Amino acid sequence: MGNALRFLYGKCCKPLTEEDSGSLGPHGVSAATVGVSALAQDLYHFEITSQVPEGLTRHVTSSKKAQANWYRKLSEAWREAKPPPKTAEEAARLVIQTLSRHKKADVEGLLAFYGLPLPHTLIPVSTAEPTTLPAGVKFEMQTLPVDARAIPDGDTITVYVSAAEPRESACVPGDVQMAAVRRSKARAERNYEQADALHQKIINAGYRVINLPNNEEVLARKYRIRLRGIDAPESSMPYGKEAQNELIKIVQGKCLRVLVYGEDRYGRCVADLYCNGIFVQEVMLKKGCAWHYSAYDQRSELAKWEKEARAKRVGLWAASNPEEPWEWRKDRREGR
Questions:
Q1: Which of 35, 142, 185, 218 is the most buried (most CB within 10 A)?
Q2: How far apart are CA 314 and CA 308, in angstroms?
């Protein structure tokens, strides 16, 4: 049994309460889990018993033998996904990609069975992750898993990079390294007051000790990132919270590839973000969660994605005349 399936089965598959009764699919999927946990549970069950779920036949046309072949492929794909799907959209994309050679009606029936998004409702993502560094990139970072609390709005994010990374290891101040060693020793001796004081010293220096899911502790450097080429509504603006939540949905718990092009006047790294091969700015623009920030970035594809979202009136473009965030900030600076 793969660890990914076991983890999701244990963490996500919880009994439904009366509040969850408005299920999205015939599998009894709640609005909170949106089918991901149910699919993980059935893949877990299939690896043990080789049995597909009861009731699936009513939603697909192929035989039980064909269904077993689907679940065999999906189990393998789920195990190999790093990290495994956590959102309904991620799970749907995995199903669609894995079963791309199978009947369209069967794939859509399987998605409907779990209450997962159908193919036509998903935003198509076209930009492939670059295999070589694009022109203008100053440096590249691979982050530790992103915490949702580090995302204040739809175009800003705080990330941490392991101090063991080659680019970072030679730059860690000696007093930070010493504080990390002393903190570890203080915790081993259960001197938590001293350990907390040492950790605060580390934080003040721009670092933090991060607890990973496997209980490993990692010394990491803090970076504030401004997504290059887009401008999302501020959190207190109309659609600001929705934009923030969309960015959280894309990157929460994921390790990001960050291509840094420079630094803005607030000391933030201006960067392109890639999450599991997906260009984050493309998703934010196509879902109507941000403007193309053309004053600072003239890439034609960003303008195209904003234009497409405007035409479909998705996200913030559902409003008749949404206020640009740069104008909103200017008004606040001038006391209007």
A1: 35
A2: 9
Phi and psi angles of residue 14, each rounded to the nearest 5 degrees, phi first:
-115, 150
Give CA–CA dist 88/92, Å, rounded.
6
Query: How many residues in total does the chain contain?
Result: 336
Residue 268 among the catalytic residues: yes
Which candidate in 234, 246, 282, 306 is catalytic? 234
Residues 217 and 210: their CA atoms lie apart, in Å, by: 6
Spatial distance between the Cα atoms of 289 and 294, rounded to a whole number of angstroms: 15
Active-site residue, from 226, 228, 246, 306: 226
Query: In this predicted structure, what is the pLDDT of residue 294?
Result: 96
DSSP label of 153: S
The token pair that represents 310 in the structure block: 């405007």
Among 90, 221, 268, 306, the one annotated catalytic:
268
Helix (H, G, I), strand (E, B) or coil at 259: strand
- Give the integer Cα–Cα distance in Å for 269 and 258: 9
Q: Is 6 a catalytic residue?
A: no
Tell me the two tokens of residue 214: 């496997």
- Find the helix or strand (DSSP H, E) in which 336 lies: none
CA–CA separation, 307 and 174 (whole Å): 50
CA-CA-CA-CA dihedral for 123, 125, 126, 132, to nearest 10 = 170
pLDDT tens-digit map of 163-220: 999 999 999 999 999 999 999 999 999 999 999 999 999 999 999 999 987 788 999 9
Q: Region 102-128: what's the mean pLDDT?
A: 89
User: Which DSSP category does 324 fall into?
Assistant: P
The residues that bridge with 139 in the sheet, in sequence order, are: 260
- How far is Cα 160 from Cα 203, in angstroms, rounded to an integer? 12
**Distance, CA of 205 to CA of 199 (rounded, Å):** 10
Residues 6+ apart with CB under 8 A from 301: 127, 282
Question: Considering only CA atoms, which of 266, 229, 235 is closest in space to residue 153?
Answer: 235
Task: Give the separation between CA 85 and CA 223, rounded to whole angstroms.
Answer: 26
